């Protein structure tokens, strides 16, 4: 499984993904699921992937192939992030055309999804979620984040503390708590976490970090948060119930 | 959908279930999913149900029928809660035998699950989760709660604050927070919540409450908790990252 999240904030974009992949509980490995495409000074795009690793790697390879062979339309020359998201969707469809029948014969779904965001000069920064059918939706100030993969455990904390106006730092902190809640409940989501912040109108990749089990800050977060929640819980008034 | 949770605590058992059922978004109604079987002074059993409402109602009816017709083995005369859980499982299998083929012809899964717990004189209080195949598992001090239905959103808060040693009051408070987190994220889980506490060795139904949208305590809980989390979040130290 995977857990990945992307935020559309007033001040920029924040992306994070875990790195665990598994094909059965006895075949667990680590793959980076955060990919950056950039032309510094002009555009930066980040792609987070979840689902079947063979499919997501094939999609990324197809996008890179478009850039390498200087296709008429590729991620580094399209004019808008919408057009770029359409290229991601087209790459998904191309892989589907190649692989879906064989996968179905093995009773395997064509299961993949992406969070894709960035900024191209002349436009605002934008964030999309691309489905396995190659279609996509765009985030807005009212719905300023997308999650893919194992999204439920880590959703309540995001809903309670993050808004479009939140800072990149707040989104980064919340992201670590969201991953902490998820990893406590689902062992198929695992460290390290790749995190990347993009500051709007910078047109270059921003702060990047790989958070692993040795990361002091991450280690302190889980303990801090559990203590804070237990304290808030103890302080919460009791109902007037005769239990 | 449904969300229901049952706790096995040192001091007793706590059960809660929402009441929303839906067959499509334009067919939403309210049904009680918490059923009590009792012989005061001798035994109390509580059954929480999730899944297809027609199936869970048929299972409950089958259990009641066993009591009404004074079957050799029914919920009010078996000697142990394990034997009682086996009766629940047998009722599930009987309904499966009647309905599963017709359901499959309509592309509908035989989807049902139960949390079942209580105490019979001569035994400790016990808690079980019964699956749609009629088999079941029992809770233990290490894993002191079961959830059925839409369980993920409301799980992190339980994992952080509840242990087997927690009081019934703590479990009740945590249950409301857990439902609050779930209902914020999934509209197919809805008020009112039925909650029942059983104090061990009392052999009678304990405190019961139906928490609806007018319940002052419940209304205050969501706000209190959001404020407490936001405060704890703001107080959380920042990482040493240049975002």
Descriptive report:
Two copies of one chain form a homodimer. With 243 residues, the first copy, chain A, is α+β, with helices and mostly antiparallel strands. The first copy, chain A, has a single domain, classed as 4-Layer Sandwich (Glutamine Phosphoribosylpyrophosphate, subunit 1, domain 1), CATH 3.60.20.10. Helices cover 35% and strands 28% of the residues of chain A. Chain A contains five helices and twelve strands. Chain A has a five-stranded antiparallel β-sheet with strand order 10-1-2-11-12, with helices on one face. A five-stranded antiparallel β-sheet of chain A has the order 5-6-7-8-9, covered by helices on one side. In chain A, helix 3 packs antiparallel against helix 4. Chain A is globular, with a radius of gyration of 19 Å. The first copy, chain A, starts with a strand and ends in an 8-residue tail after the last helix. The relative contact order of chain A is 0.20. The mean pLDDT of chain A is 96. At the A-B interface, helix 3, helix 4 and helix 5 of A face helix 3, helix 4 and helix 5 of B.
Structure keywords:
Glutamine Phosphoribosylpyrophosphate, subunit 1, domain 1; 5-stranded antiparallel β-sheet; alpha+beta; 12 strands; globular; homodimer
């Amino acid at each position: 499984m995977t857990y990945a999240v992307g935020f559309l904030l007033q001040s920029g974009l924040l992306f994070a993904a875990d790195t665990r992949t598994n094909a059965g509980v006895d075949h667990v490995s680590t793959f980076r699921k955060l990919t950056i495409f950039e032309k510094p000074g002009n555009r930066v795009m980040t792609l987070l992937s979840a689902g079947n690793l063979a499919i997501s790697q094939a999609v990324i390879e197809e996008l890179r192939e478009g850039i390498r062979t200087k296709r008429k339309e590729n991620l580094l020359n399209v004019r808008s992030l919408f057009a770029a998201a359409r290229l991601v969707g087209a790459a998904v469809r191309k892989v589907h055309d190649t692989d879906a029948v064989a996968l179905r014969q093995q009773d395997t779904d064509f299961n993949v999804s992406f969070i894709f965001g960035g900024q191209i000069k002349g436009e605002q920064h934008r964030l999309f979620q691309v489905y396995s059918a190659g279609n996509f939706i765009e985030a807005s100030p009212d719905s300023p984040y997308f999650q893919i993969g194992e999204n439920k455990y880590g959703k309540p904390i995001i809903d309670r503390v993050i808004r479009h106006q939140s800072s990149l730092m707040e989104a980064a902190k919340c992201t670590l708590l969201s991953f902490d809640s998820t990893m406590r409940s689902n062992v198929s989501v695992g460290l390290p976490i790749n995190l990347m912040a993009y500051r709007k109108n910078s047109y270059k990749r921003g702060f990047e970090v790989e958070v692993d089990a040795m990361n002091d800050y991450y280690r302190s977060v889980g303990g801090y948060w559990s203590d804070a929640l237990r304290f808030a819980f103890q302080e919460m008034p009791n109902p007037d119930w005769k239990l």
